[in-house]
Amino acid sequence: MGDVRRRGAVALGITGLVAPLTLALGATPAQAASCTTQAGPYQKQVEKFLGRPVDGKQSATDCKAIRAFQTKHGISPNIGYAGPVTWGVMDLMQKQKAVGQNPNKDGKCPVNKGRIACVNLTLQLSWIQDGKKLVYGPVPVRTGRDGHETRTGLKKIYWRHIDHVSSIYDVPMPYSQFFDGGQAFHSVGISVWNPPGSHGCVNMTKTDAKKYWSLLKKGDDVFVYGRKPGT
C-alpha cells in the first residue's frame, strides 16, 4: 500500500485563510497583533451570532468575543475583525444546525445502495444512512479547499488504515478510510470549521471518525455531492 500513500494520502491543511486585513484596515504590524477597534462589514451579524448587543459598533468586549471565536477555529488574522471569513464560518454553522436530523431531505444521496456514507460539500456535512434510515449524523466535516477539492460522485471505500500517516505532509491521519485516489475520511486535531479546508480529505472530529470506522467497512459506498463554499 506504499504507492497508495505516495500517490495521494491527502492530509489536512493547518494554515488558516489569511485575509489581507492589515492593508485593508491601514494597520501597522504592531496594531495587527492586537484587538482591532474597527467594526467589520459583518459586525451586526457576528454580534447576533455571538449573543452580543447588536449595534454594529465594535467594543472591546465584542472584539474579545470575536477574537476568541477566531482563535478556536483557526481563523487568521485573529484580531477580532468581523470580516467575510469569520462570518462565513458562522453562517455555515447556522445552516448546518438548520438541517436537523433530516440531512437527505433533498434525496440527493442514493437510498437504493443500502449502507452508504454521504458527503454534502455545500453544507460541509456528512452522515451514514441505510436506505432512507439515518444511521449516524449528520456531522460537520472539513473538505478540500480551492484547488484541492474533494471529488464528487459515487465511490467505494477501498482501503482502511487506523494509524495512517501522510507520506506527503508527514501528519497523522487517524481512522483513515480511503475512497478516492488518496482522499479519505479521517480525524483531525483542529477545528473542522478551520478555513480554508483540507487538501482533499474529509476531515472529522475524533469522535465522529471513530464512529465512521466502526460503522463502515471496505467496499461500502460513499457519495460526495455539492460544492464547498469558496471553491
Domain tally:
2
Low-confidence stretches: 1-32
CATH structural fold name of the largest domain: L,D-transpeptidase catalytic domain-like
Total helix count?
Answer: 7
Mean pLDDT: 87
Extended strand count? 9
Q: Quick one: CATH superfamily of the largest domain? A: L,D-transpeptidase catalytic domain-like
GO molecular function, one term: transferase activity
Protein name: L,D-TPase catalytic domain-containing protein
Domain L,D-TPase catalytic: 114-225
InterPro entries: LD-transpeptidase, LD_TPept_cat_dom, PGBD-like_sf, Transpep_catalytic_dom
Description:
The chain has 231 residues and is α+β, with helices and mostly antiparallel strands. It folds into 2 domains: 2-14 and 102-225, L,D-transpeptidase catalytic domain-like, CATH 2.40.440; 21-82, no CATH class. Helix content is 27%, strand content 23%. It contains 7 helices and 9 strands, in the order H-H-H-H-H-H-E-E-E-E-E-E-E-E-H-E. The strands form 2 sheets. It has a 5-stranded mixed β-sheet with strand order 3-2-1-9-4, covered by helices on one side. A 4-stranded mixed β-sheet has the order 5-6-7-8, covered by helices on one side. Strand 5 (159-165) and strand 6 form a beta hairpin. The longest helix has 16 residues, at 84-99. The radius of gyration is 19 Å and the shape is globular. It starts with a helix and ends in a 6-residue tail after the last strand. Mean pLDDT is 87; it is low at 1-32.
